[in-house]
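Dear all,

This email documents one entry for the complex benchmark we are building for the journal club exercise. For each entry we list the sequence lines for every component of the assembly. Then comes the predicted three-dimensional structure of the complex as a token string, followed by one or two observations. Please use this as the template for your own entries, and keep the labels exactly as they appear.
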Amino acid sequence: MDLASVIFWIVAAVLVVSALLVVTLRNIVHSALALVVVFATASGIYILLNAEFIAIVQILIYAGAVTILILFALMLTRITGQRITNPTNRQWWVAVVICAFLGACIVYAATFSPRMIPNTSNGVSQLPANVNNVARIGQLLYSPTTYSYVLPFEIASLVLLVAIIGAIVIGREE
Amino acid sequence: MLTLNHFLVLGAILFVIGLYGAISKRNAIAVLMGIEIMLNAVNITLVGFSFFNQTKPYSTYLTGQIFAIFIITVAAAEAAVALAMVIAIYRKRNTVDVGEIDVLKF
């Protein structure tokens, strides 16, 4: 096994275990802290896939902003006098069956099925030299003349504006 | 040797873990945590596809990463609005149990 495989298996194991902790821990604040580990190790996967910009955005937005938002909501909706703050509903075993079946279907479709995507590239050999990931993503997002995603980018900023105003309007005191 | 299948299977496992959290939890914030894990799993799949499909020029196969950026944007907006709704419901009904939030208008 080469170094990338070793790093992948370590990061994937931490990722899956902490995601399981998020859905199984009894105290919801502990779940939120395990969620931080999920987000941070997912950025390790992105670095392994040569996506430096996504990795940094993941740390900034998920491990920074979304986690703080979730912790604030937990603080504001604190239920006192209850030992298990993160309960499951009575049909949780149905959810286990559905999720196991769906996961088996996806894994079968991705690996064993006759219609799977052929694995032609290992990704490493064809990577061009002297490529700056952030600069290329910037060209692809902002360039007004060449092939780019400038219109979806503007629409995304509009979506964020609407989300900010909506959150203020919904969450304010009467 | 890492292949595309490693990342697809990792994304699938994370997705079903998040789905389990989203459909089996009674605390509305825990449901949101499950949804965030599902969105992260999809992002891992997309970035994996963009890394392993390298037969085209570089700027074309970065499309998967652009998709991931837009998913992160929408996920941040969704988290903000959903948590504001959870807080508003808590203020009115004094509960965040999704089993007890069962009327559409009050």
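Observations: Chain A has two domains: 1-89, 132-174. Chain A touches chain B through 89 residues (CB under 8 Å).
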